[in-house]
Amino acid sequence: MSIVVDEGTKLAVSGLTGREGSFHGLRNKAYGTDLVAGVTPGKGGQDVEGTPVFDTIAEAVTEAGANTSMIFVPARFAAAAIDEAIDSGVETVIAITEGIPVLDMLNTYWKAKEAGVRLIGPNCPGVLSPGKANVGIIPAQFFDPGPIGVVSKSGTLTYQIGNELKQAGTGNSSIVGIGGDPIVGSDFIDILELYEADPETELIVMVGEIGGDAEERAAEFIASEVSKPVVAYIAGFTAPPGKQMGHAGAIISGSSGTAQAKKDALEAKGVRVGESPTETAAIAAEMLRSL
Amino acid sequence: MDLLEYQGKQLFAKHGIAVPSGEVAKTVDDAVAAAEKIGYPCAIKAQVLIGGRGKAGGIKIARNAEEAREHAGAILGMDIVGPHGEGPFRVDQVWVEGGSDIAEEYYASVILDRGEKKLLTMVSAKGGMDIEAVAAEDPEALVKRHVDPTREFTAADARSIVADAGLAEDALDEAAEVLVKLAEVAREEDATLIEVNPLIATAGREVVALDSKVTIDGNALFRHQDLAEIADTVDDPQEQMAKEKGLTYVKLDGNVGILANGAGLCMSTLDVVAQAGGAPANFLDAGGGSKAEAIVNALEVIKSDAKVSAILFNIFGGITRCDEIANGIVTASQQIDLGMPLVVRLDGTNSEEGLRILAEANLPNLHQEKTMLDAARRVVELAGSVA
Ligand SMILES: Nc1ncnc2c1ncn2[C@@H]1O[C@H](COP(=O)(O)OP(=O)(O)OP(=O)(O)O)[C@@H](O)[C@H]1O
Ligand SMILES: [Mg+2]
């Protein structure tokens, strides 16, 4: 098994007719993901290299059997596109778009919760289940199938760690980018819960960064709900307070949201925290060997 | 994006919240002229993006022109360090506003609670002082309540909060109205933090916002023309230059310039450089591109910081291949004279090919490494100690 996306994923890409959307949507298809539809209002009836395009996500569900929606829509229209996906009948929405106003996401978050739809992102690289499906922009070549579940706020940092895990001869059940925005549809704990229930996942690597308290909440959750070993990495020890470090959510407010506080919270619950991406991958590989 | 006190107050006024009227001044003479117009007593307040101005001597009451001149002279040009060591921030403008006849000082705020995914309102009758200290010493004095995301935040909701916080009976209705309007500012202006400390009740029983701290979501500026203009004014020369070039750059105070692809990897690079004993000069996310032009732009911003003595370019090639990036670096170094060592760490897709291209180009001042840790050690060594 794996989580969020797999062989059963039937993908509809909102924005498939755009430059980025078509580039990544077609890459996902080339990887083996079952790309069933593109969605662009006003372009229904066209196709993108053989994939039919519909005007609405609901049509992609009824006409093409889509069960997963990927949002590749420009920021100012993206929240509306996610809302549309939530109403369309898909089970999972993966929003790649960066730059969505956070108060729009606040409404969208509750809408998804109420509808029981799993929302991943926004501002995330997507989800890859090696050997099964890739939905998003994760370069799949760094990841082989294996027993390690990865969940991360950052894209490149995940590729870095994934590559080191691969060199250490291991691989991944899934890689989930939850996104670097202040409000994301799924937090660490939502994904940890899925990995805990996934029989293929034996160990979890969690990659956090400054801002908010998702890592602290994850520490509590791990202590009470997760039996599998978790190794963590936190970025941003040198970040000054009050400065946004690239991601909209990566900001220390006053004295809260620091990397040290997150590391302390995790270590207090017995989670090992690597000093660098390299050390984190090494700890994970070593722990896996001793399981 | 954070607003200065007076900018926040202008936003409050736009939404019908009472604030003292005043003027901005950048020179002592202008401050005195503003004070003369406003009348005495008046408050002369340093406009910097940091809290704790009062304690630092950045807020003074003037009773006459002479005092106005004295205070404005002392405040303009002073350096203010924040309560968590932020800054220093040089004061280059003051806000001169009418003095209020304060009967009580309260605290009110509306912030985005990221963990709970709701707006959180907080009110206290113990305003005017450091609210984190109030919350630590007397948690009951700070009433916290989330706004239900599924329905409107009403005057009745607000009234129960201000009443529970123990504000004066005859100030409750007006304070509740202010709280409703603060929530409206959050929603309509895309503010993720609004703090009023103090919110006062005057002797005449008017409720007035005497201070403001407002953070606007930078991702929402496209729908706020007035606020977008404020965002365009950046003080720091490197940050200004980066903004013009469309780069995500944060200035730090070390001597090791940093460039990496991806925000997370870039933060991690700063940390690893610090672990190697170095002091990062900046955060700069180069993004996913490999174009020589983008690399030149980024290097120009980093290099324009006089403190920088060596640069680390940390790349993990994903979809963008290392050979493309290496070609970009080679072209870039023909277009820009760095005059300092550049350490390049290339890993990921086609890294062997990328390293070969760099080696063959045989660029002076260019050092290549395969791992992040080696690259960090190398650049720290080359940068030397901070001048
Ligand atoms: N217009 C005014 N009239 C009378 N007193 C004022 C006025 N403005 C400020 N004060 C007094 O000065 C105190 C500090 O002002 P203010 O809250 O604006 O700054 P601060 O809180 O010290 O700064 P910061 O917001 O940077 O922490 C107030 O609590 C109030 O007692
Ligand atoms: Mg104050």
Estimated share of beta-strand residues of chain A: 15-25%
Query: Helix and strand succession of chain A?
Result: EHEEEHEHEHEEEEHEHEHEHEH
User: What's the tally of helices of chain A?
Assistant: 9
CATH architecture of the largest domain in chain A, by name, is: 3-Layer(aba) Sandwich
Structural class designation of chain A: alpha/beta
Topology:
The complex is a heterodimer of chains A (291) and B (387).
Chain A lengths: L9 E5 L4 H13 L2 E6 L7 E2 L2 E4 L2 H8 L3 E4 L3 H14 L3 E4 L6 H14 L2 E3 L5 E4 L3 E4 L8 E8 L2 H13 L4 E6 L10 H10 L5 E7 L4 H12 L4 E6 L23 H10 L3 E3 L2 H13 L2
Parallel strand pairs in A: 1-2, 1-5, 2-4, 5-6, 6-7, 10-11, 10-12, 12-13, 13-14
Antiparallel strand pairs in A: 3-4, 8-9, 8-11
Helix pairs in contact in A: 2-3, 3-4, 5-9, 6-7, 7-8
Chain B lengths: L1 E2 L1 H10 L7 E4 L2 H11 L3 E5 L12 E4 L2 H11 L3 E2 L8 E2 L3 E5 L3 E12 L4 E7 L6 H7 L4 E5 L8 H10 L7 H18 L1 E12 L4 E3 L3 E4 L8 H7 L5 H8 L3 E4 L4 E5 L2 H13 L6 E4 L6 H12 L6 E8 L4 H14 L6 E7 L2 H11 L4 E4 L2 H12 L4
Parallel strand pairs in B: 15-17, 17-18, 18-19
Antiparallel strand pairs in B: 1-13, 2-7, 3-4, 3-7, 5-6, 8-9, 8-11, 9-10, 11-12, 11-13, 14-16
Helix pairs in contact in B: 2-3, 5-6, 8-10, 9-13, 10-11, 11-12
Bound molecules: adenosine-5'-triphosphate and magnesium ion.
Explained architecture:
The complex is a heterodimer of chains A (291) and B (387). Chain A has 291 residues and is of the alpha/beta class. Helix content of chain A is 37%, strand content 23%. Chain A has a 7-stranded mixed beta sheet with strand order 3-4-2-1-5-6-7, sandwiched between helices. In chain A, strand 3 (47-48) and strand 4 (51-54) form a beta hairpin. Chain A is globular, with a radius of gyration of 18 Å. Chain B is built from 13 helices and 19 strands. Chain B has helices at 5-14, 28-38, 65-75, 131-137, 155-164, 172-189, 225-231, 237-244, 263-275, 292-303, 322-335, 351-361, 372-383; strands spanning 2-3, 22-25, 42-46, 59-62, 79-80, 89-90, 94-98, 102-113, 118-124, 142-146, 191-202, 207-209, 213-216, 248-251, 256-260, 282-285, 310-317, 342-348, 366-369. In chain B, the strands form 5 sheets. In chain B, strands 1, 8, 9, 10, 11, 12 and 13 form a 7-stranded antiparallel beta sheet that branches. In chain B, a hairpin with a 4-residue loop joins strand 11 and strand 12 (207-209). The chains are: A alpha/beta (291), B alpha+beta (387). Chains A and B meet through helix 4 and helix 5 of A and helix 9 of B. The site of adenosine-5'-triphosphate has 19 residues of chain B, from strand 3, strand 8 and strand 11. Magnesium ion binds at residues 197, 211 of chain B.
